[in-house]
Structures are given as C-alpha cells and as structure tokens.
C-alpha cells in the first residue's frame, strides 16, 4: 500500500522538477532574447556621393552609396529628405549599372539650398539588414543638421521579435531531429510513449509555426517597418522572391512533407522502418539544415562552397545532441511506471551524443577560424566574445555529461542483477503450501503457479514477498510454532545485498536535466552568434571605414639647410589624396624664423625605388606665395622617395630626400 501511494507521489515530484527545469531554461532563453540587440552590421558603407557632412555647390542628380560587399535593396532602401523634411528622391532604388555593392536613387530637379538628410537600409549578403544616415549641404548648411535615428522604435520591435522567433525555430529543429533519432536509434520501444510522441509533435509544430512567422516578419525586418506591415503585399512579395524568403518557403514545404510522414510512421519509428523511409528522413533533415546554411553566415565570406556543408553538419550535430538530450530527459522524468527507459538505451544515446560532440568540435573549429580569423579578435569583437562564452558553456555541458556517462556505466553493470531481482519470481514448491488453508492456497496458486515459471511470466506477476504475506495472513501462529522455533534456533544465512539502481536513476535524471538546461543556454548563444557580425568581417569593415574616413590629404615636413646665413628652414608639402592615381601637390616654404619664405625655385621629383620607376617631375608652378602642381599621376602604392630642391639665390640651393607613402586606390 505504501509503495502504491509513493509511486504517484514520486511521479508528481519528478514532473514538478522537470517543469521547474523547463521554466528555468525558458527564463535563460528569455533573458538572452531580451538582451539581444538588433543584428550587427555585416557590411559597411565605404563611400557616399555626396560625402557625409560635405558642402557642395552644384545640386547632384542622384545619391550613390557603395558598400563593402553585395547588398540587397528594397523600395525604401534610400530616402532623401530636403531641409523642409520633404522627400526629394524619385524613382526606384536600384544597383548602379554593373555592380551589386552600390545603390543609387535619382533626385528631384531644382533642389533648394540647405542641409539634406540621407537615410539608408540595405540587406547584407548573409541576410542581415544594416542601416544608417548622414547629411550633406547644398550651397550652405541649414540651421538644423540633426541626423535622425537609423531605426525607428517600430522597426526595432519587429527586429527583436524576428530574432526571438529565430531562437524558437532552432529549438523546434533540435526537437524534431533529436527526438526522432533518439527513438529510432536508441530506444525503439519508446516510440509508443505518449510524452515522447508529444515532444516530437511539439518540435514539428514549433518549427512550422516559427517558420511561418519568420516569413511574415521578414519584410518589416528588412525594411525597418512596423509590425502592422507584416501583411503588406509589396513587402511579402519582396520577401518571397528574395533568397531568405525562398529558403523559408522551402523549409515550410519540407515540414509539410515531414508532417505527413510523422502522421503515417510516427507511432512506428521503433519498428525499423524500411531503408527508403530512413533515407527520406535523413535527406529531409539535411535539407532543413540547408535552409539555414544557405541564407546566413555560411553563405557569405570566404570558402562558401566548403562553409555551407560544414554549417549543415554543425547544425545537424547540434540538433541530434540537444534534441536527443531533451528526449532523454523527458523519458527519464515522464515515462510511466514499468516503462522506464532502460540503461542500454541510455548508453546508446551516450555514444550517439559523443559522436555528435566530436562533429560539433571539428566543424566549430573550422567555423571559428573562418569567422574569427585571429586570436586577438576573440577578445576585441562581439562575435569573438560570444564564441568564447559558447565554448565555455559547451565545456560545462561536457563536464556534466561525463557524470551522466559514469552513471550510465554503473546502471549497465547493475542491469543483470536488477532484472533478475525485479522480474524473476521465486518458485513456491508444493510442500510449502500443504500447511496453508485451502482458500489461501487457491489464491496463491492463482498468483504464482507451482513448479518452474513459464517463459512468458508477466512483469506484474506476484512477487515472493506477496506470497509470503498471503501465507502469513492465512496461517495461525500456533500452527507454525515449530517452524518459528526452528527459525529462532537456526540463524538465517546472510542475504546478498540488493542492487540499488533506483538511486542511480534519480542521479541520472538530475544530471541529464541539468545538461538539458545548459543545452538551452548553448542553443541561445548559438542563435545570438548567427545574428552577430563575424569577427573577420568586423575587422575588415572597421579598416575600410577608417580608410574611408581617413584624411583626404597627406602632409610632409621636409627640413633644409643651404649652409648660408638665414639659409635654413622647412618645406611643407601636401599631397591630395596621396593615393594611386592623379594627385595635387602644394609646397609652402618656411624660413628659419617660421615665417613664409619666398624663394626663386622649388623642384620636386619622386622615385619608386623598389619598382625602379622615376624620377617623376611634379612640375611645381609658383602660385604667388606657394608652389603647386594640379596633376601628378602616381601609378603604384608604397614608399616613394622625394628629391626636393630649394634654391634661395642664383647660386645657393640644396637638395634633400625624404620618403612619402602613397596609399592604394580605394577598392570600389
């Protein structure tokens, strides 16, 4: 009776602990989702015409923006506001002829003087939107030159919701693939277990619903619109025809096919489905993972042809490990009495999880090298810091998993003794029943037949303890006094210590549940990584942005001394833009007292010693106080040696040498 009451109580306690752990996992995910900022830029603006903060005299006929990589455009990718905050852009936003990284839009005629604001929002090659704004002035700046925020509150809300749904989609994929493989490969008998069937259905339904939401939210996510625009036909049309929209649509088709297959074969996953069904299931899993890899980080950057299959393997290994871990946790906590997951099934999953972790480590190392690029970037970029956090979480999960493996090994050692102790009832000989009254003997005979037990003894057959209790209740103490005396005089032989698998199972439940919670943390960090600018791209974009905002001229101070009284000073030489191609040169001579000095002649030649080019004469011309050349063409980047000759009188002159660095032409 006590055992009968304790079993439901134990199950209720297990359910409560599982619910608490799932709530904790959800809280971890919610915290990470709430703290996530909109996706960081995976491309960067490297050039704008007109330039940011520039003041121009002639009204431009168009705005042109050049980015560091291919970008996707929509109807609202470029917006130009006049000084009165009126739209002055006309016509569609399109790529410049022959380019995929340059966006342009035509402007209206007869633009008034003042400061104009350009707001832009494009989609990077890996599917993440980036945005920004800048100003330029026509004629003279306006009184107010405030640049509006690149993202509106409504757009930020849509972006955050999109990111949160992406987390949910990853979780659904893990459950769909992990639970299916756990049942098919580790515990076929669990296919009929209701909690596992519900978990599998929940994974499919979650992924399907999340994919449909992502398809609707993609338009506002890309354009920065409000949530109310999810059903805007123009946005939806643009989403469906884009690369990410095609991937999401293909995912929905695959999920529809998977839903039909689960309805047909779901209850028979453990019945060794045919090779055709197994192959179709494996191909569906690969195709589902491909819908992520083909539209995110793996689809942009270096070695795309290798990065996409590596990303697919990484995602599948994650789903098998974390989804299978969730299935094992539910099986350990929610399996009804008499249907507990056996130790061999746990051991099979342990081996499968180990193989998945090996794949995760190998593919993760490649992805880390591809996305990070250097050890310094691990601590200096957001992506590197998140990757370090993920690696730490994975190490923690593996540490907990090692305890689970030890408990599983112990259960396997106890399995033979446990099975014999729990399922093989002792034989009650006929002689032992002779002293039992007829009524009790009939009840005992109905429960435990005399002689050897049949091979198909049911698991709920009466145990020896129940037979002894029945016998004691039916036989008076006086009738068996002799037997009692014999028992008192003859000490009983010490019984073998009974194995205690139940305590190991409880420990295994707790260990696996803790693994599952940490797995949710790993999954959340992984999702954050997919929305964060890779370190290699961040370093490259920072360098390009610095180059784009670098000074457009280079100044060199060259001292000279002719050896006569008041015959020393310095020459300030300015190259603009100090890049490969045409440059302007200005030379201003200062005397020993620091004042501007007028001299009869200044000559300047440049030689590229490494390539043996030159000397090239700058052909400086006196401009009434300074010397200048409007066009000096330099063909190569690197160090050029200047030979500067300053003549103070008809006979007093000096030639000095100094190097100047010429930058490469911008890669536009």
Entry keywords:
elongated; five-stranded antiparallel sheet; 18% strand; 668 residues; alpha+beta; 17 strands; 49% helix; disordered N terminus
Please specify the SSE layout and strand pairing.
Layout lengths: L1 H34 L9 E5 L5 E2 L5 E6 L10 E4 L7 E7 L6 E6 L6 E10 L5 E10 L14 H34 L7 H30 L9 H9 L1 H23 L9 H19 L10 H31 L8 H30 L4 H4 L1 H42 L14 H10 L16 H11 L6 H9 L11 H30 L4 H14 L5 E8 L6 E9 L4 E10 L10 E8 L4 E5 L3 E2 L4 E8 L3 E10 L5 E10 L6
Parallel strand pairs: 2-8
Antiparallel strand pairs: 1-3, 3-6, 4-7, 5-6, 7-8, 9-10, 10-11, 11-15, 12-13, 12-16, 14-15, 16-17
Provide a descriptive summary of the structure in words.
There is one protein chain. The protein is α+β, with helices and mostly antiparallel strands and 668 residues long. The protein has 15 helices and 17 strands. It has helices at 2-35, 153-186, 194-223, 233-241, 243-265, 275-293, 304-334, 343-372, 377-380, 382-423, 438-447, 464-474, 481-489, 501-530, 535-548; strands spanning 45-49, 55-56, 62-67, 78-81, 89-95, 102-107, 114-123, 129-138, 554-561, 568-576, 581-590, 601-608, 613-617, 621-622, 627-634, 638-647, 653-662. The chain has a 5-stranded antiparallel beta sheet with strand order 9-10-11-15-14, with no helix packed on it. Strands 1-3-6-5 form a 4-stranded antiparallel beta sheet. α8 packs antiparallel against α10. The relative contact order is 0.08.
Q: Helical segment tally?
A: 15
Let me know the average pLDDT. 76
Q: Report the strand count.
A: 17
Structural category: alpha+beta
